Amino acid sequence: MPNNLLISLMTEAGTSNKGLAKRMRDLAQQRGITLGTTHVSVQRWRAGSGIRPGAAALLRDVLSGLLNRQIALAELGFAHEMESTAPPVRGYPSSPREALAALDELAATDPGAMVTGPLSMSGVGLDSIVLTWLLARPDGIPTGAASARRIGMRDVYAVATAGEMFMRLDFLYGGGHGHRALRHYFRHEVLPLLSGSHSDKVSAALFSAATEIAQLLAWTAYDAGKHELAHHYLVSTLRLTQVTGDRMAGSRILSNLSHQATFLGHEDQALKLARAAVEGARHHSTPRAMSLYTAMEARALARAGDGVGAGRAMHEAEKHFERADASVGDDPSWLGYFDAAELQGELAHCFRDLRQHRNAVDHAQRAVAQTDPHRYARTLGFCRMVLAQSLLLHGELDEALSMATRAIEEGTSLQSARFLGYVTDFQHEISTHASHAGTADFHDRVRSALVRMDDED
User: Fold this and answer.
1) Taken in order 372, 377, 381, 383, is the CA torsion positive or negative?
2) Closest CA to 109 of 189, 264, 228, 263
3) What does R_g of the chain's alpha carbons equal in angstroms?
4) Can you say whether residue 331 is alpha, beta or left, with left for phi > 0 and alpha for psi between -120 and 50 degrees?
5) Alpha-carbon distance 161 to 408, whole Å?
6) What is the pLDDT of residue 222?
7) How far lies 444's CA from each of 164, 263, 441, in Å?
8) Cα 382 from Cα 426, distance rounded (Å)
9) Given pLDDT bands bounded at 50, 70 and 90, which one contains residue 83?
10) Three state DSSP letters for the chain
11) Which of 138, 226, 131 is nearest to 174 (CA)?
12) CA proximity to 244, closest of 162, 352, 372, 140
């Protein structure tokens, strides 16, 4: 029988079968997913056929954008297709050596050769990983192989310095810029050190520095749109944090997994991961870190449309951050980026997803004003696009187009699939204003900017 719920939503959105299929393919492409949906697929759905979970999530997000409100999966009219969005992920490594072997294999993988597809894991797989990490005790440093060279703290400092340099490149130019070089550095410089001979003190510091490099490999892959690769990196890196029992670093990895799940529209997974980060870090992390983890919980709740839960989590994140300055000396160096501007940006995302336009505009404006363009160019691009989206939702089309144009003009050096995703989302959102002169001009500017990006690659 016909899927009347889907038919009604499409009628309300004013979209045709072909138009909806194209929007879904465009959104899938910017999320690193290969999608074969056509107008024939849409017609079959309208006639009552089933849908794959990954396609359902994209369909939901496209219709939400067209209708300027959050559409739940249940509103699409599909009954039994929401249980899984496989393929399943690799298992959680059983030992530090297995985790290092998995990371070596991943770093040897050419991201361009990977087959892209919907990324998720079964609920059982996710529960197993989270529970294993939460209940784990420190492994202790594995014994290194006999080596003629004794590894010292100077080697650790070199790895840490390299991590800081690559992290700076990531913030300035996007994950696509340094990922290949970072892969090579990790395989040929970092992993051999871990297999060498060193004291307990050096071993602990070295594993911490190596974990940071592995985390950055995951993050750059994520930002470049290589979602499956990023996910596998994160799972194996989470296992590394068990070596020394670094709960703060482990919760950071869980919050990164939550961030990715939110970006891809897997709200249930995102919330579970964020809450695991919060609970796992409790009594083990600084206030600034707890602010980050609760902000990720707020992001997941906001994306799911839970205004009450998101509001509570946002309030907790702000309260933790108020206490952060008093303990700044206890923060690890990797947490330095999570400043007031970063928190404002996270809150702006939450209010945007909750369609609380005025609050979204206020927080996005603060984030834009406070973000250092010389250190966090990509973050500034995100914040400007969120501000543009929020202004649009608030009915300020000209201001929205102006802000989005500025983000595009100043973001041409970014090699970030996520940033391009924000731009594509905004283009979809202004499609209802096609007759406005500024809309056509903005599309032209986007095309010109993309050409410049291609010329610079």
Assistant:
1) negative
2) 228
3) 22
4) beta
5) 31
6) 94
7) 37, 26, 5
8) 12
9) very low
10) CCCHHHHHHHHHHCCCHHHHHHHHHHHHHHCCCCCCCCHHHHHHHHHCCCCCHHHHHHHHHHHHHHHCCCCCHHHHCCCCCCCCCCCCCCCCCCCHHHHHHHHHHHHCCCHHHCCCCCCCCCHHHHHHHHHHHHHCCCCCCCCCCCCCCECCHHHHHHHHHHHHHHHHHHHHHCHHHHHHHHHHHHHHHHHHHHCCECCHHHHHHHHHHHHHHHHHHHHHHHHCCCHHHHHHHHHHHHHHHHHHCCHHHHHHHHHHHHHHHHHCCCHHHHHHHHHHHHHHHCCCCCHHHHHHHHHHHHHHHHHCCCHHHHHHHHHHHHHHHHCCHHHHHHCCHHHHHCCHHHHHHHHHHHHHHCCCHHHHHHHHHHHHHHCCCCCCHHHHHHHHHHHHHHHHHCCCHHHHHHHHHHHHHHCCCCCCHHHHHHHHHHHHHHHHHCCCHHHHHHHHHHHHHHHHHHHHC
11) 226
12) 140
For residue 197, list its beta bridge partners.
Answer: 150
Residues 15, 2: Cα–Cα separation, whole Å: 17
Q: Measured over all CA atoms, what is the biggest interatomic distance in the chain, rounded to whole angstroms?
A: 73
Identify residue 154 by its one-letter amino acid code. R
The amino acid present at 225, given as its one-letter code, is G
CA 364 to CA 374: how far, in whole Å?
Answer: 19
pTM: 0.78
Q: How many CB atoms within 10 Å of residue 8?
A: 12
CA angle 433, 434, 440 (to 5 degrees): 115
Is residue 9 within 8 A of residue 76, CB to CB? The reply is yes
Instruction: For residue 242, give both structure tokens.
Output: 């068990």
Whole-angstrom distance, CA of residue 272 vs CA of residue 275: 5
pLDDT level of residue 61 (50, 70, 90 thresholds): confident
CA distance 421 to 393: 18
Task: Give 150's strand partners.
Answer: 197
Spans of all domains in the chain: 4-76, 91-245
With a cut of 80, say whether residue 123 has pLDDT above it.
no
- Amino acid identity, residue 246? D
C-beta of residue 423 within 8 angstroms of C-beta of residue 446: yes
- What gap in Å lies between CA 368 and CA 385, rounded to an integer? 10
d(CA 13, CA 67): 6
Tokens standing for residue 307: 């205004």
Report how far residue 48's alpha carbon sits from residue 54's, in angstroms, rounded to the nearest whole number. 17
For residue 236, name the pLDDT band (cuts at 50, 70, 90).
Answer: very high
| Contact present, 178 and 227 (Cβ < 8 Å) | no
In the block, tokens 């939550």 appear at: 258
**Single-letter code of the amino acid located at 386:** V
Instruction: Tell me how far apart the alpha carbons of residues 130 and 231 are, in angstroms, rounded to a whole number.
Output: 14
